Amino acid sequence: MHAATDPHPAPAPLSALRAGGLTGRLRPPGDKSVSHRALILGLLCVGETAIEGLLEGEDVLRTAEACRALGARVVRHGEGAWRVNGAGLGSLLSPSETLDFGNAGTGSRLMMGVVGGHAVTARFDGDASLRKRPMRRILDPLTLQGARVLEQQEGGRLPLVLQGTSEPLPIEYTTPVASAQIKSAVLLAGLNSPGRTTVIEREASRDHTEKMLTHFGAQVRVEPFEAHGRRIVLEGRPNLRPAPVSVPADPSSAAFPLAAALIVPGSDILIESVMTNPLRCGLIATLLEMGADIVEENRRGEGGEEVADLRVRHSPKLRGVEVPAARAPSMIDEYPILAVVASFASGETIMRGLSELRVKESDRLAAIAAGLKANGVDCTIEGDDLFVRGGAVKGGATVETHLDHRIAMSFLVMGLAAREAVTVDDAAMIATSFPGFRALMEQLGARFA
Ligand code: S3P
Which amino acids are annotated catalytic? Predict the structure, then answer.
């Protein structure tokens, strides 16, 4: 596979300039979560899985590469059109080289689940950002299932070597934080268990793994647990069969043009085929409460998920709201861009319960606050809560992105509506999740330099 990622690639700064109204229509790239899972389920089936609309961002390409290293044939037939000929559940190969996941937390953690439930040994590595992220949350349950961690860095960090087991133990596991990545790793390891694997989450997190396992023929039972949680029960060793996957547009990527249209005067855009899975829609709910002009049109089912087109217009009367901690799992990746929108709203926006933001591609809580302050926005962090007091945004500063694609895109969106240009120190990471970001935004009328 890849040689270990260069931890210090050359940065590519980019500035966003105040824009006239954004207009037109766009289809954001395929959903990142669904794309990773489609490839992985393809790996675990015997036969050919056809995927349409796959996100061809760097993160997902790393997962494709890892699937090859574990024994699948993965071929690109055209834009977003991929075919996976899987090795099959129980029949994976030990990769001969390090699995280098670059910047991809989801790819690496889900694949640890796959490896943990098979008689293979693999070395996992990634870029400087991924090497800082906690993996113990994944390794702990996998160890209970029978996997062994042969090497790891301090605090359970990459690079690490994981030895899986051919007989994963059936376990019942309660995730310590609301995390679809932890849940998915346990379920993927449990697939090859002779028994039943149960995951309990106190707050429901995105459910793409459960949905896709069902789509590929596994028996998965999902029940409510307490007020906001779920219990997911998977029967081991299912007869997985290839199933076509059509990947809807990523709501977490749609969030950037959507936010830009809300804050740039004169904007009126249509964002097509956005996934509206309720466990991904916290941002839209919050923006509607703030007074955003967003209308869902043409709601329909596509590839097992609900999608809709979103008509978004400039919304001059946005006002601050309080976002409850319970909403965090359904918009966990959207706080950077929400904080930018809140900077343009009147009054205070309070975002509660953001501890998980500290362990994303960067410490996003710190990165958001630093970027806002540098650009003249009044904000504070108290405990795990972020307070943003909005108004006219001065801009004019350079924001440190810390290898974080969403910090980069969020502050570029800020620059489209701030009085002065906003610069990000490195826009290269945007390619991990939204390779066409700049071109699509420019088509709508955005200006970058
Ligand atoms: C993801 C889950 C979330 C999210 C990430 C994608 C997934 O992480 O932040 O971008 O596809 O399962 P956590 O599960 O760690 O919260």
Answer: 333
When computed from its CA atoms, the radius of gyration of the chain, rounded to whole angstroms, is: 21
Of 274, 380, 395, 391, the C-alpha closest to 334 is: 274
Name which residue sits closest to atom 10 of ligand 1, judged by CA.
333
Can you give the pLDDT at residue 10?
82
Q: Is the pLDDT of residue 303 over 80?
A: no
**N-to-C CA span, the chain:** 35
Helices assigned H by DSSP within 75-155: 105-116, 136-145
CA of 396 to the centre of ligand 1 (A): 32
- Residue 12 · residue 231 · CB < 8 Å: no
| Nearest-CA residue for atom 9 of ligand 1 | 333
Residue 332 in contact with ligand 1 by CB distance below 6 A: yes
The response to whether residue 138 sits with its C-beta less than 6 Å from ligand 1 reads: no
What is the three-class DSSP state of 385? strand
Neighbours of 154 (CB within 10 A): 5
Q: Are strands 148-153 and 23-26 parallel, antiparallel or unpaired?
A: unpaired
pTM: 0.97
